Amino acid sequence: MSFLTLESLTKHYGDTAAVKGLDLSIEQGEFVSLLGPSGCGKTTTLQMIAGFVTPTAGRLVMDGRDMTDLAPNARGFGIVFQSYALFPHMTISENVGFGLEMRKIAAHERTRRIRQVLELVRLDHLNDRYPRELSGGQRQRVALARALVIEPPLLLLDEPLSNLDAKLREDMQLELRNIQRNVGTTTLMVTHDQGEALSMSDRVVVMDQGCVKQIAEPFRAYEEPADIFVSTFVGKTNLLDGRMASNDAGLPCFEMGRQRFELAGIGMMEDGPVRVSIRPERVEMTPWQQGLVDGRVKTRQFAGDHWLYQIETSVGLLLANCPNCGPAGFDIGDEVGVRWTPDSVRLLRESPTPAAGGMS
Amino acid sequence: MSEMTLESRMAGRSRPSVRSRSLAWIPFWLTGPAAVFFLVLLGMPLLMTLVLSFYTFDYTAGISETLTLSNYTDVLFDGYFHEIFLRTYEISLITTLCCVVLGAPEAYIIYRMRRPWRSICLLITLGPLLISVVVRTLGWVLLIGGNGLLSQFMQALGLAGTRGFSLMYTQTGVVIAMVHVLVPFMVISVWASLRKVDLSTGDAALSLGAKPFTVLRRVIFPQVLPGVLSGSLIIFALTASYFATPSIIGGRRLKVVATSVYDEYLSTMNWPLGASISIVLLVLNVVIVMSYSRWVERRFRRTLGEG
């Protein structure tokens, strides 16, 4: 029996469905991310769990208790808002202590717990400041401390890091995850940043247009995307359209034009049109005519630790991500070969909904 | 941010070229006409009033240009004027408090309304500002006067005798009409504050276990307090020097400072005394407004910025 269960949670705004029958079970202590583009219903889902939005249908059960119709101030969940929503007229201590005060906890106990949680987020020296006087990262940690101090059974994070700059965001990802591990609070995070979702979560729920596309561990979601939407939204990928065929040995292979590519780990399938995905970091560049296909470097991007090449080949434009190992790499216009191992090729299901057809 | 301003300040300090020196005069040329306009049309009459307040007045000889302080000693030490000043500030204070109690919740309720209603209700609230104060006050005369609707209503309920019930020439009547005239200023002022409030702070308070009323009291109200305070300042200062409404509803029987200045000028023809009353009112208002806004500024500098 899982700790938190969402049972076909649904929200309609007039005729449009923001969330369509979402089912999800979360275990105690788990860190789960709702990942999806804006408008996919992830924030509405969070708001329904928090109690700010009433679901049109479905149930929310925590620890065997139906919470669907409970008022937000009776749920006791800790929430970190995208804007942090700190009380600007209160000091950091007062902000953090607000939830304890509402729970009528005695003053000396309050002081002790405020100090404890501010130490946890390493802000105990700033307890007399006002939110305005803190940096973005510090405000973020105050918001986290304020949500954690009430010892909530569930912590909800709404795009918690989206207002921070890139460097700080990476540090905070680590720190947030460490704090969550130490405290052990079950956490649900909403994010549109796939890197954030992959690096922080135990499981990722990929959503699109109000539907769940895949629920999996980050590694699985990346390596074995459930459909085309997931494969393009979680990480970059090369999508190739072709046909299933059998090679001379009778093994399944992928046929594209006159070329056939081996596949691995795939059982017999009917012949017919299929789409496959190959991650850019699995695409290896070789000298001319030494790979599976030949091509010409169209663009290249240097990103410090790796090069990103676009290569025009007979199977289409391929993206290749090559680690920067010292030498200067290929130039634009270079004629190169490209290869990949059979096990890098992922066969994709078509999305069950026709809506995902727009993605390619 | 601070680095930016520092940089721009450094840039400003670099050697001024001929071009930038001529550019430096542009602000003066741009503000010049308005400054001259105000000096002539506001500064001059004020200066003349100040001079006038030191002249001597005699019922037979009229105004003579001999300087005296007797006008001020009259205003400052005569119980008659004390009563008028006290009454004026009492009306101002009560009107301001009523505007806070009515206007602040009104602004919040309208602010949280859905799309079409929000603009409609705001328009209804601010619409009266487009109508002359005199017309609006005369409307109140019809309502609260001896044969007015209120009187008829009270008579129907048996709460008033056959002679009717009138709030004319009473402090209550003046306050009711003043509140009606000035409450839009409170709504505007609180509205401006609300626009700066992150309403998710209310959700945050809810999630921390606060009851809806506690959210309003502890989280939303303190954030719009600067708006409430600046609205109060506007209303207090306006009421203290308001003329039209007290003169129509208060009349001669319930004098306030503004109406007594008017009477000194136009009935008694004692211009110097009228001038000194208005100077005293001006000084008092300036002192109150300045010290109040300095207190407000100091109170909110750390929390809400230059709100």
From TrEMBL, chain A:
<dbReference type="GO" id="GO:0005524">
    <property type="term" value="F:ATP binding"/>
</dbReference>
<dbReference type="InterPro" id="IPR027417">
    <property type="entry name" value="P-loop_NTPase"/>
</dbReference>
<dbReference type="InterPro" id="IPR003593">
    <property type="entry name" value="AAA+_ATPase"/>
</dbReference>
<dbReference type="InterPro" id="IPR003439">
    <property type="entry name" value="ABC_transporter-like_ATP-bd"/>
</dbReference>
<feature type="domain" description="ABC transporter">
    <location>
        <begin position="4"/>
        <end position="234"/>
    </location>
</feature>
<dbReference type="InterPro" id="IPR008995">
    <property type="entry name" value="Mo/tungstate-bd_C_term_dom"/>
</dbReference>
<keyword id="KW-0813">Transport</keyword>
<dbReference type="Pfam" id="PF00005">
    <property type="entry name" value="ABC_tran"/>
</dbReference>
<dbReference type="InterPro" id="IPR017871">
    <property type="entry name" value="ABC_transporter-like_CS"/>
</dbReference>
<keyword id="KW-0547">Nucleotide-binding</keyword>
<keyword id="KW-0067">ATP-binding</keyword>
<protein>
    <submittedName>
        <fullName>ABC transporter ATP-binding protein</fullName>
    </submittedName>
</protein>
<dbReference type="InterPro" id="IPR013611">
    <property type="entry name" value="Transp-assoc_OB_typ2"/>
</dbReference>
<dbReference type="InterPro" id="IPR050093">
    <property type="entry name" value="ABC_SmlMolc_Importer"/>
</dbReference>
<dbReference type="Pfam" id="PF08402">
    <property type="entry name" value="TOBE_2"/>
</dbReference>
TrEMBL record, chain B:
<keyword id="KW-0812">Transmembrane</keyword>
<dbReference type="InterPro" id="IPR035906">
    <property type="entry name" value="MetI-like_sf"/>
</dbReference>
<keyword id="KW-1003">Cell membrane</keyword>
<keyword id="KW-1133">Transmembrane helix</keyword>
<feature type="transmembrane region" description="Helical">
    <location>
        <begin position="23"/>
        <end position="48"/>
    </location>
</feature>
<feature type="transmembrane region" description="Helical">
    <location>
        <begin position="123"/>
        <end position="146"/>
    </location>
</feature>
<feature type="transmembrane region" description="Helical">
    <location>
        <begin position="224"/>
        <end position="249"/>
    </location>
</feature>
<keyword id="KW-0472">Membrane</keyword>
<comment type="similarity">
    <text>Belongs to the binding-protein-dependent transport system permease family. CysTW subfamily.</text>
</comment>
<feature type="transmembrane region" description="Helical">
    <location>
        <begin position="166"/>
        <end position="192"/>
    </location>
</feature>
<feature type="domain" description="ABC transmembrane type-1">
    <location>
        <begin position="85"/>
        <end position="292"/>
    </location>
</feature>
<feature type="transmembrane region" description="Helical">
    <location>
        <begin position="91"/>
        <end position="111"/>
    </location>
</feature>
<keyword id="KW-0813">Transport</keyword>
<dbReference type="InterPro" id="IPR000515">
    <property type="entry name" value="MetI-like"/>
</dbReference>
<feature type="transmembrane region" description="Helical">
    <location>
        <begin position="269"/>
        <end position="292"/>
    </location>
</feature>
<protein>
    <submittedName>
        <fullName>ABC transporter permease</fullName>
    </submittedName>
</protein>
